[in-house]
Amino acid sequence: MAESEYTLEELGDLVYPNPSCAKLVTSQLQSLPKDDQPLFAFQVKAE
């Protein structure tokens, strides 16, 4: 489970900042059957 101090409303629409970056983001997980795909996937980096 993850949490954030921001609401979805504050984050706004999640879109690729640059269309060329779309190649770096997977649209589906190859290891899972089509019916078991997650609604979305994201990576968080802590510094």
Could you explain the architecture of this structure?
With 47 residues, this protein is largely without helices or strands. Helix content is 9%, strand content 0%. The protein is built from 1 helix and no strands. The longest helix is centred in the N-terminal third of the chain and has 4 residues. The protein is extended. The mean pLDDT is 76.
Features:
little secondary structure; single chain; 1 helix; 47 residues
What's the topology here?
Elements: H1 8-11
Shape call: extended
- Percent helix among the residues? under 10%
| Class by SSE composition | little secondary structure
Order of helices and strands: H
Uncertain runs: none
Distance between the termini: 19 Å
**Rg, alpha carbons:** 13 Å
| Major sheet summary line | none
Beta fraction: under 5%
Structure summary, number of beta strands: 0
Summarize the structure.
It contains one helix and no strands.
